[in-house]
Amino acid sequence: MPHLDKLAAALIVIAVVVGFVAPRDRHGGGAPGTNSAAGGTIHAASSRSAAAAPRRPPKKKAPPFNMAKAAAAARAAGANELGMVPILMIHRVMAKPQVSLDRSTKDLYDEFTGMAKQGYVPITAAEFVKGQINIPAGKHPVVLTFDDGSITHADFDGAGNPKPDTAIGVIQRVAKENPGFRPVATFFVNRDPFYGGSKPGVETMRWLVRNGYEIANHTTNHKDMRKMSHDEVAKEIGTDEQMIENATGKQATTFAFPFGSLSEAHLEWAQHGTKPVPWNFTGMFLAGWKPSDSPYASSFDPRQIPRIRDKEKIKEDDCKQYCSTAWLEWLAKNPDKRYTSDGNPATIAFPQDKMIYLYTRYKEWACPY
Fold first, then answer.
1. Does residue 340 sit in helix, strand or coil?
2. What are the beta bridge partners of residue 94?
3. Whether residue 45 has pLDDT greater than 60
4. Other CB atoms within 10 A of residue 48 CB
5. Which of 73, 216, 217, 324 is least surrounded by CB atoms within 10 angstroms?
6. According to the UniProt entry, which residue ranges have a biased composition of type Low complexity (predicted)?
7. Which CATH superfamily is domain 5-46+83-334 in?
């Protein structure tokens, strides 16, 4: 698919400017100068009440958790499940990057290895938006997302194994070298995904799903949706959805706006549809520039979830502050802002003073300490 890096870069810069003039996040969860609706080109704010929110299911037939014991365990782990979660936005992965959105294989390997050492555990975008963040105590979730279905994301050698210089090859290598680093990611695909690979795109998508990866919707032709009518939006999303379902037998749970561009109308048009097949996205993702709020926080809007552009600290597009290397460093220096798991899927644990940030729907799972 086309990689219009200049347009994407411009959108990121616009988001940065907006961040400096917009109000601070009401929870104070972000870095100075950020706001909870950043990312892409947003023309109107939306309230969470208008969108379907994820629900974290308790263990089946489990007795009520012992609050005192759960709180003690959460305190020991330094749990904060209302903290921020980095969602990385990655495009092509290449030994020698050709355009600004490309990421080198070596840089990707080094970054993922560094995250593993810091205690990050990958989860899919679908798991994130559903609130299914089941990772060990003291660990931090990270969502790895890859846009456009590039052959550099998934291709295979003659024996059917992932090529080592592809995204899945890097992920599986890091997982093998760092037990606990789950080999999962989300691939937002357009038409003819993974074109030119050793397998047909349909077979590659099926392989990914069988191996725990997520295939998600990114429209058929990767066009700027701001210029589209309702019917055009429906066709772009619906035909991509049909392709995904025909290949995987599953509805897509998540969606990424091409270029991160949207308006209030597109938030409504994109989330639900019926033609040529029905779709109902639990979460919709923007272009990158800041970590996401926790899916359990009242500030979280599942229809416009920010991501972080995956890039080292370079001057271009203000990456010294707003790309992945800079944000991961910021989260490491501000651990009270970062999501840290209590290791218990039946509870949502956090320091007592953060209770005001919990979305009220989740009170029965709350474990403040």
1. strand
2. 104
3. no
4. 16
5. 73
6. 44-54
7. Glycoside hydrolase/deacetylase (3.20.20.370)
Start-to-end Cα distance in the chain: 48
At 8, the pLDDT band (50, 70, 90 cuts) reads: very low
Distances in whole angstroms, Cα of residue 44 to Cα of each of 7, 92, 219, 283, 350: 20, 31, 22, 18, 31
Our CA dihedral for 113, 119, 122, 126, rounded to 10 degrees, sits at -160
For β-strands 254-256 and 120-123, DSSP reports them as unpaired
**Mean pLDDT calculated for residue range 294-322:** 95
Q: Which residues partner with 93 through β-bridges?
A: 103
**How far apart are the C-alpha atoms of 233 and 219, rounded to whole Å?**
9
Q: Give me the mean pLDDT over the 193-208 stretch.
A: 97
DSSP per residue, 184-210: --EEEE-SSTTTTSSS-HHHHHHHHHH
**pLDDT at 35 exceeding the cut of 50:** no
pLDDT (mean) for 16-41: 34
Would you call the peptide bond into 276 cis, given omega within 30 degrees of 0 as the criterion? yes
Is residue 172 within 8 A of residue 183, CB to CB? The reply is yes
Instruction: Extract the runs of DSSP E, i.e. beta strands, from the chain.
Output: 87-90, 93-94, 103-104, 120-123, 140-147, 186-189, 214-217, 254-256, 272-273, 279-280, 283-288, 305-309, 348-350, 366-368
| Residue appearing with tokens 């090859």 | 169
Do residues 317 and 296 make contact, with C-beta atoms less than 8 angstroms apart? no
Per-residue confidence (pLDDT) for residue 14, from 0 to 100: 41
Residue 23, pLDDT score: 31
The conformation of residue 109, written as its DSSP 8-state character, comes to: H
Cβ(317)–Cβ(17) under 8 Å?
A: no
Nearest to 308 by CA among 129, 143, 126: 143
Kindly list the distances between the CA atom of residue 110 and the CA atoms of 105, 113, 173, 328, in Å, as whole numbers in the listed order. 9, 5, 11, 13
Quickly count: other Cβ atoms within 10 Å of residue 111's Cβ. 21
Measured distance CA(340)–CA(135) in Å, rounded: 9
Kindly tell me the burial class for residue 282, based on how many C-beta atoms sit within 10 Å of its own C-beta (0-12, 13-18, 19 or more).
Answer: buried
Which tens digit of pLDDT belongs to each residue from 70-105?
999 999 999 999 999 999 999 999 999 999 999 999
Alpha-carbon gap, residue 140 to 121, rounded angstroms: 6
Q: Is residue 42 predicted with pLDDT exceeding 80?
A: no
